[in-house]
Design goal:
Strand order of the largest sheet: 3-2-4-5-7-6-13
Helix content: 25-40%
CATH superfamily of the largest domain: Thiamin diphosphate (ThDP)-binding fold, Pyr/PP domains
Number of domains: 4
Number of helices: 20
Number of strands: 27
Length: 605
């Protein structure tokens, strides 16, 4: 990882590294997040570097809380930054919509890291529409260097209109690498003072009405800033114009020639006069943008209002798709309108065929034992497996098939309550420890309140694992000069009134299965906490005591219970049907030995 706090020089940075550097150069003093790819690296870096750079940083329990604490800092005059993946903004949208009415005193950015093509997400929603919904200004970088530089300009915009600014990135910006020039750090206050102002900050209906009017006035000022902004500029010449933003601009720059380009970086509110002037006297205008026709619809409206009579090509004309991220190949759709350089692929599909490699639970993952225990116990019974967002989503795969309904974080626990009322099936909600703190407590409380007889399996692997092993309230905090004790999930669950609560070790599949049986039979809400640390996190912390499993072939009867029950990738069926252990992957967790009916598998030091 690059030295984010280096004084100067040119560095090759990941987009998220460049964004983090931009925060320090902009003098940001308060930052918060709930981790989510493709934004996760920003938090991982700040966990290590924030204190040294004079910034407070926290992993909040969820995105809503992350936005609220950052809003308080900005309302006190301290520059703040909150960031999340695109679906995280759905969680944070509640406070954000009213914060737009209140406004802020110090600059505040809300980074939404969108994920076209759903690389690590359950949808590919286009969060530019949140700028339209909230009337908040928005900026969009195209490269790592631009991402770093735009941070400071975005804070200038925020403080000019006293509003939070949406900082919208996409996966290809967050995870691209590029050269970045380092600049000096701004000197801004780390402490502020909140000045009470009820009409501004207390949005009861009597105050919300004038605040709505004030927000519309602020948007007019933001429009003036957008028209003058250096983030919106024209380059190149030609009677065909291209209007573009974000990572799509980089494809246009590299593969399209002989055109005039209006590059938009300040994309809400859009600079309508600048767009109209750009379109005049053009033979054609092409709008290149990923996902929704956010820019294109405004361009079409401006064209109609100004009676420009210029053909506009984009998604509405059928030239570009509304789904998935773009690539250089996408631009061939406009090759009959402009000159597009042919993209030569180094290898065609016929040249090489790669084997499929679907994601899978790791060797020694404790979730395997949990799924094995639950699914074996429910064999022959009707269950609805309500899963959630995390590593355990992979329970959908064979042999477990333990994911029937997935919508959002905490959604499985909520849905389980609905299934309990309208079906005779047993609803089982799988949820991780971090997700439980994020949004799993509320549906558990609701189940108690409404007598939904759900069975919740909290898969406590002592980490927010899928996004990079960030801490959560169940692990405690120990960075940035702040140390806190872990919250005990069992005590918390008992504290809200759940009568059946039991903590198990998922490596002991037989014992876990017995407890699951008791939970299923319990007449009411039941919670089983499967508690065992993620071995990858233990390995990273140099705390993993690696053992090995060995097969006694004299005892093995080739029943394949180990494969059918645990399905560990370290277990291999040889050509002759014998079970072998891959010593490279095996960590000696013993789950396979625990389920072997003949004791043919043993854990060895």
């Amino acid at each position: 990882m690059a030295d984010i706090l280096a004084k100067d020089g040119k560095h090759l940075l990941l987009g998220n590294e460049a964004i983090t550097r931009g925060l320090f150069e902009a003098g940001v003093r308060y930052s918060s997040t709930y981790p989510g790819t493709p934004s996760s690296e920003v938090g991982n870096i700040l966990e290590k570097e924030a204190e040294k750079g004079g910034m407070y940083f926290e992993f909040s329990t969820n995105e809503k809380t992350a936005l609220e604490v950052a809003a308080a800092a900005a309302a006190s005059g301290v520059r703040s930054f909150t960031f999340m993946k695109h679906v995280g903004l759905n969680v944070a949208a509640d406070p954000m919509m009213t914060l737009a009415y209140s406004g802020v005193k110090g600059g505040m950015l809300i980074m939404t890291a969108d994920d076209p093509s759903c690389h690590s997400s359950q949808n590919e929603q286009d969060n530019r529409t949140y700028a339209t919904l909230s009337l908040l200004p928005m900026v969009e970088p195209s490269t790592p260097a631009e991402a770093k530089d735009m941070i400071s300009e975005a804070y200038r915009i925020s403080e000019a209109v006293n509003l939070p600014v949406i900082f919208r990135t996409t996966t290809r910006v967050n995870h691209a690498r590029g050269p970045v020039d380092f600049g000096p750090f701004a000197d801004t206050p780390a402490k502020g003072h909140f000045v009470k102002d009820d009409p501004k900050y207390v949005n009861i209906p009597a105050y919300s009405k004038p605040n709505r009017t004030r927000l519309l006035e602020k948007q007019k000022k933001a429009m003036e800033l957008s028209e003058e902004s250096p983030l919106n500029f024209i380059e190149g010449e030609g009677d065909v114009g291209i209007i573009t933003s974000g990572v799509s601009y980089t494809y246009v720059k590299e593969f399209v020639s002989d055109v005039s380009i209006l590059k938009l970086g300040f994309t809400a509110p859009l600079p309508e006069k600048k767009i109209a002037d750009f379109m005049r006297n053009k033979k054609a205008v092409i709008v290149v943008e990923e996902l929704e026709p956010y820019l294109e619809d405004t361009v079409l409206r401006i064209s109609a209002q100004e009676k420009l009579n210029v053909p506009v090509y984009g998604k509405r004309s059928g030239h570009f798709p509304r789904e998935w991220e773009y690539s250089p190949d996408t631009l061939t759709a406009i090759s009959d309108i402009v000159k597009v350089q042919k993209f030569e692929k180094p290898l065609s599909k016929a040249d090489i065929t790669l084997p499929g490699r679907p994601p899978t639970l790791c060797a020694g993952c404790p979730h395997r034992g949990t799924f094995a225990a639950v699914t074996r116990e429910m064999k022959g019974k009707e269950a609805v497996y309500c899963s959630d967002i995390g590593c355990y989503t992979l329970g959908i795969q064979a042999p477990f098939h333990a994911a029937d309904f997935i919508i959002c974080m905490g959604g499985g626990a909520g849905a389980a309550g609905g299934f309990s009322e309208v079906t005779d099936q047993t609803p089982i909600a799988f949820i991780g420890d971090s997700t439980f703190f994020h949004s799993g407590i509320q549906p558990l409380v609701s189940a108690l309140f409404n007598n939904h007889k759900i069975k919740m399996i909290i898969m406590d692997n002592r980490s927010t694992a899928m996004t990079g092993h960030q801490p959560n309230p169940g692990t405690g905090r120990d960075f940035g000069g702040i140390a806190t004790e872990p919250l005990d999930i069992e005590s918390l669950v008992k504290g809200i009134g759940v009568k059946f609560v039991s903590t198990v070790d998922p490596y002991d599949v037989k014992a876990t299965r017995k407890v699951v049986r008791e939970a299923i039979d319990f007449d009411g809400v039941a919670v089983v906490i499967a508690k065992r640390a993620c071995p990858l996190e233990l390995k990273k912390q140099k705390m993993l005591k690696v053992k090995r499993c060995e097969v006694d072939h004299d005892k093995c009867i080739k029943c394949y219970t180990c494969l059918k029950t645990i399905a560990c990738p370290a277990l291999i069926k040889d050509k002759d049907g014998s079970i072998l252990v891959d010593d490279v992957q095996c960590i000696g967790c013993g789950m396979c030995a625990n389920v072997c009916p003949k004791g043919a598998l043993e854990v060895k030091e």
